[in-house]
Amino acid sequence: MNELTRRLWEEQDRHSGDRLRLFTTIGVFTGDTSVLYPGSFVDVAASFVFDSVTYVDNDRRAVRFFSDTAGVDEIISSHRRNPYKAEWRFIPSDYRTELDLADRCVGLLVSLYAGFVSEQCTRYLRPGGWLLANPSHGDAAMASIDPRYRLAAVVSARAGRYTVTEGDLESYMIPKRPTEITVELLRETSRGIAYTRSPFAYLFQRENS
Fold it and tell me: According to the model, what pLDDT value does residue 174 have?
């Protein structure tokens, strides 16, 4: 493993095992499925849980990290609980451009601190598939007004543990201040909406459209 690979992963995993716990919880809820992770930087923890993950980022450090395929394989294999070798792919690109992927090819789209992933990448998510979006940068709010999605669950974090809740969803995504949430507003501010309840993230399900 290259020294840069090791250093970048250690920084990414500075809260040791946090993303493993997150993706394990999401995997239990969604089942094993193929994953698209735009704006991933070097967060390969999705591959600790899921068998097939495509990472997308245009950061030069991420490009160098993923070019060390043996090092990335070493990180992934040392954390996987499933004995089968994970399949992963890295696309060195801005996810806002057209990606070398077929439409409706994945079952889970990950949007964590990466901007409006849902707006640009829903085309790659199959109907019935899942969008994991946190409130940062407004993507959860964007998905909440997208007719292609319905809110299916919320993801809560407490003391380093994650839980998925499907009930009482009507009490979530209520703005603290009366606000007309529009695509234009979200694009202009590029930040999330302040809601009365603030889970770590939301799980949306893509409708059959």
Answer: 93
Architecture of domain 3-206: 3-Layer(aba) Sandwich (3.40)
Tokens representing residue 147 in the block: 């007719």
The secondary element (H helix, E strand) that includes residue 5 is helix 3-12
Query: Which long-range CB contacts under 8 A does 49-52 form with residues at least 24 apart?
Result: 49/20, 49/23, 49/24, 49/80, 49/81, 49/82, 50/23, 50/86, 50/108, 51/82, 51/84, 51/86, 51/87, 52/86, 52/87, 52/88
User: Roughly what angle, to the nearest 10 degrees, separates helices 69-79 and 3-12?
Assistant: 40
Q: For the residues of 43-90, what is the DSSP string, one character each?
A: --THHHH-SEEEEE---HHHHHHHH-HHHHHHHHHHH-SSSSPPEEEE
Residue 33 burial (10 A CB sphere; 0-12, 13-18, 19+): middle
Residue type, position 104, single letter? R
Are residues 113 and 137 in contact, defined by beta-carbon separation less than 8 angstroms? yes
- What 3-state class would DSSP assign to 136? helix
State the Cα–Cα distance between residues 79 and 73, nearest whole angstrom.
10
Per-residue pLDDT, 84: 81
Per residue in 75-118, pLDDT tens? Answer: 999 999 887 889 999 999 999 999 999 999 999 999 999 999 99
Q: Quick one: tokens of 3? A: 């020294």
Q: What is the pTM of this model?
A: 0.95
